[in-house]
Design goal:
86 residues; alpha+beta; Ubiquitin-like (UB roll); globular
């Protein structure tokens, strides 16, 4: 599966905007990404195993909050991070 990486997290992926990952759920994909790019999952998922409030994950075009959401090989996962400032 292709995973789109937001700009603020690309330091974990050697600046790659996309990465390959395997898994049958969103969480399994994030775990595989973390195996390939250590520290990435912790930026997306908190200590209780939930998506951090400032993170959004899309499977294809559908926003999901449940890490147990099933995914398929042909799906595309997009990680988005809310930016703030003033």
């Amino acid at each position: 599966m292709i995973v789109r990486i937001p700009t603020p997290l690309r330091s974990y992926t050697d600046e790659a905007s996309k990465a390959e990952a395997d898994g049958s759920t969103v969480d399994e994909v994030l775990i595989d990404l973390d195996r390939r790019f250590p520290g990435l999952r912790f930026r997306v998922v908190d200590e209780q195993g939930r998506l951090r409030p400032h993170m959004k994950v899309f499977v294809n075009v559908e926003a999901v909050r449940d890490l147990a959401t099933p995914v398929g090989e042909r799906d595309e996962l997009t990680i988005m991070q809310a930016l703030s400032g003033g």
